[in-house]
Design brief:
It is built from 4 helices and 8 strands; from the N terminus they run H-E-H-H-E-E-E-E-E-E-E-H. With 151 residues, the protein is α+β, with helices and mostly antiparallel strands. Strands 1, 2, 3, 4, 5, 6, 7 and 8 form an 8-stranded antiparallel sheet that branches. The radius of gyration is 15 Å and the shape is globular. The termini are far apart.
Length: 151
């Protein structure tokens, strides 16, 4: 029997053509993160990253229509080249969205990385599905980043 928590969990898996150390760096170094971590049609305007357990992160994204959104959270677990766990929420109007928890695992597979992304804590299927679209597009960009570096 599937629970509501399982139903409202987002899971994505991709094979990235780079070793775990490089994929982890792309996820944790601002100059690399800014190159791939926004969905199609959205750009990174700026942000902050304090990569330590208890450290905060924040990113501002601008859509093609000029609107901006800010995502933010706190790092809970950092295991270089293996695992990253952090909270994720959005500033919306005068408040914020409910906090979700994002776990990203980096597993070596030959000279590539099996990337496993799990996001939990969604309050609705619509929110989960919207994040799935956003993360899928962003991870497409991550794949392209490493494909370009190999060319």
């Amino acid at each position: 029997m599937t629970t509501q928590a399982e139903t409202l969990t987002l899971k994505l898996e991709r094979l990235i053509a780079a070793p775990p150390q490089r994929v982890f760096a792309a996820w944790t170094q601002p100059e690399l993160l800014n190159q791939w971590s926004s969905p199609a049609g959205i750009s990174i305007e700026g942000g902050d990253l304090d990569l330590r357990v208890g450290g905060h992160w924040r990113v501002t994204m601008r859509a093609e229509d000029g609107s901006t959104r800010e995502a933010f959270g706190t790092y809970r677990e950092i295991v270089p080249a293996k695992r990253l766990v952090y909270t994720h929420a959005w500033h919306m109007g005068d408040g914020t969205t409910p906090e979700t928890v994002l776990t990203v695992e980096f597993r070596a597979k030959g000279t590539s990385t099996r990337l496993l992304l799990t996001q939990t804590g969604f309050e609705s299927a619509e929110s989960r599905d919207g994040h799935q679209i956003g993360w899928s597009s962003s991870i497409d960009n991550l794949e392209k980043l490493f494909a370009e570096k190999r060319a």
